[in-house]
Design a protein that fits this description.
- The chain has 432 residues and is α/β, with parallel strands linked by helices.
- The chain folds into two domains: 65-306 and 351-430, Metal-dependent hydrolases (TIM Barrel, Alpha-Beta Barrel); 308-349.
- It contains 15 helices and nine strands.
- The longest helix has 61 residues, at 4-64.
- It is globular and about 100 Å long.
- The chain starts with a helix and ends with a helix.
- The model is unreliable at 1-5 and 7-14 (pLDDT under 50).
C-alpha cells in the first residue's frame, strides 16, 4: 500500500500535467483561430473599404463627365400602347431599357435616339413608305420631348450636350438608322437635317441603294454611285456618317470619300469577337487615320461569341417563317411578331456577356489606336444588354470597371462623350 500511494500520486501528477498541456494547446489553438478570424475580418474590411473607395471615385468621375450614348432604338417603343417614357419601367417585364427615371439613375446626360427603318422593298412605293415612317418616328420623338420639357431637350449641335446638361436636363439627339428613307434622292438629306437628324447609319442588315451591308451578299462592292452622292451631301450638311452595319468594302469607300471623320455608332472589335458587324484591326487603324471614333456596342453577341444554341436559332427561324419580314408587316402584324419573338428569349435565354467582357474591347481599341477614338453606343432597345449593365440605370458599372483598370478621369471623360463630341465638331466644321 505504501508503494501504491506514491505511484498513484505520480500518475495523478502526470495526468494533471497532461491535462494542463492539453488545455494550453487548446487555448493556443483557440487564440490562433481567433487571430486568423480577426485577420480575415481585417482583410475583408480592408477589401470592402477599398471597394467603397473605388466606387465613390467612379461615381464622382461619372457625375463629372458629359455622358452620351450614341445609339439606342428607344423610339420604337414610344408609341407602343402602355409605354410611358416618364415612368420607371421594369426592363424584364416591359423589355424597355431606357426611360426618364432610369436615365437619371444611370447619370446619362445625352442619348441618341435612332429613327430606325428596317429594310423593305427597294421600289418607289417602298421608298415612300420608308420616308413616311421615318417622319412619323421623328415626330414621335419630338412629342415625347415636349411632354417632359423640364427634363428633356432636343440637341442638334455638338456643343448642345454640355449646354443642356448644365441646365440639369438630358439632351436627345436624333440619328437615322438605315439610309433606306433617302431612297434614290440625296436631296432628302436636307429634309431630315431640318428635322434635327444629325447622323445616318448608311445601311442595316440588308443591302440598300446606298451601299452593301455587313450581313448581306456582295452587290455594289461597297458604296454605290448614289452612296457617293449621299456621303458628299452629308459632309456638306455637317451630318455624321455612321458605318455600323456597313460591309468592309463600304467602310473603306466611305473613309476614302468623306472629307470629315466618320463614326461607327454601335460596333465592337472583331479581334475579340469575330462578327461581321465589328471592325477589324485594319479597319480600326484606318479609322484612326480618318480621325473618327468607334462607339463600343454592348449587344452581347457582338461583345463575346455566344455558345451554340440550336434550339434558340430554330425557334427564331420559325418565328420569321410564320410571320414574314417584320419590317414589311402592318402594326398588328408587328405586335404578333414581337410576342412570339420575345417568347423565344424567354424559353431559350441567350448567354449574356459582362461589363468586363465589354471593357476588354475598349482596352483593345485603346492599345491599338489610342484613347481618342473610342466611345460608347449601347444599342439599348435594339438588343443591347450585358448581364451587369442590363439597362440605362446601370451605366455607371462601365465607369467603375474603367476605374478598376486604371483609366484616368480625363480618359474616361473622352470615352463617355469627349471623343464623339470632338468628331461631331469636326464634321460641323466641314459643312458648306
Amino acid at each position: 500500500m505504501r508503494i501504491l500511494l506514491p505511484l498513484l500520486a505520480a500518475v495523478l501528477i502526470l495526468s494533471a500535467c497532461s491535462n494542463a498541456e492539453t488545455r494550453d494547446a487548446q487555448s493556443k489553438d483557440a487564440q490562433s483561430k481567433d487571430a486568423q478570424s480577426k485577420d480575415a475580418q481585417s482583410k475583408d474590411a480592408q477589401t470592402n473599404a477599398a471597394q467603397t473607395k473605388l466606387e465613390k471615385k467612379a461615381a464622382r468621375i461619372h457625375a463629372a463627365a458629359y455622358t452620351v450614348d450614341s445609339h439606342t432604338d428607344t423610339p420604337l417603343r414610344l408609341n407602343r400602347q402602355g409605354f410611358d417614357f416618364g415612368v420607371r419601367n421594369d426592363p424584364r417585364e416591359t423589355r424597355s431599357k431606357i426611360d426618364l427615371p432610369r436615365m437619371k439613375e444611370g447619370g446619362m446626360d445625352g442619348i441618341w435616339f435612332a429613327v430606325f427603318i428596317g429594310q423593305g422593298e427597294r421600289s418607289p412605293e417602298g421608298n415612300q413608305k420608308a420616308k413616311k415612317e421615318a417622319l412619323e418616328i421623328t415626330q414621335e420623338i419630338y412629342n415625347t420631348v415636349d411632354m417632359y420639357p423640364e427634363d428633356l431637350e432636343v440637341a442638334t449641335k455638338a456643343s448642345d450636350l454640355a449646354r443642356i446638361a448644365k441646365k440639369g436636363k438630358h439632351a436627345i439627339y436624333l440619328g437615322m438608322e438605315n439610309g433606306y428613307p433617302i431612297g434614290n434622292d440625296p436631296g432628302l438629306l436636307t429634309t431630315y437635317y431640318e428635322k434635327g437628324i444629325r447622323y445616318v447609319t448608311l445601311v442595316h442588315t440588308r443591302n440598300n441603294d446606298i451601299c452593301d451591308s455587313s450581313n448581306d451578299t456582295l452587290e455594289h462592292g461597297g458604296l454605290s454611285p448614289l452612296g457617293e452622292e449621299v456621303v458628299e451631301g452629308m459632309n456638306d450638311l455637317g451630318m455624321l456618317i455612321d458605318v455600323s452595319h456597313a460591309s468592309d468594302d463600304s467602310f473603306y469607300d466611305v473613309i476614302e470619300k468623306s472629307r470629315a471623320p466618320i463614326i461607327a455608332s454601335h460596333s465592337c472589335a472583331r479581334a475579340l469577337c469575330d462578327n461581321p458587324r465589328n471592325l477589324s484591326d485594319e479597319m480600326l487603324l484606318k479609322l484612326k487615320e480618318n480621325g473618327g471614333v468607334i462607339q463600343m456596342c454592348i449587344l452581347s453577341a457582338y461583345v463575346k461569341t455566344p455558345a451554340p444554341n440550336p434550339q434558340r436559332d430554330s425557334a427564331r427561324a420559325a418565328v420569321r417563317e410564320k410571320h414574314g419580314n417584320y419590317y414589311e408587316l402592318d402594326d398588328e402584324g408587328r405586335e404578333a411578331f414581337i410576342v412570339d419573338w420575345y417568347a423565344v428569349d424567354r424559353d431559350f435565354p441567350r448567354e449574356m456577356a459582362t461589363v468586363s467582357d465589354a471593357v476588354d474591347h475598349i482596352d483593345h481599341i485603346v492599345e491599338l489606336i489610342g484613347i481618342d477614338h473610342v466611345g460608347i453606343g449601347t444599342d439599348f432597345d435594339g438588343g443591347g444588354a450585358l448581364a451587369d449593365c442590363f439597362d440605362v440605370s446601370q451605366m455607371g458599372n462601365i465607369t467603375l470597371e474603367l476605374v478598376r483598370r486604371g483609366y484616368s478621369a480625363g480618359e474616361i471623360k473622352k470615352i463617355w462623350g469627349g471623343n464623339l463630341t470632338r468628331v461631331f465638331k469636326e464634321v460641323e466644321a466641314v459643312a458648306v
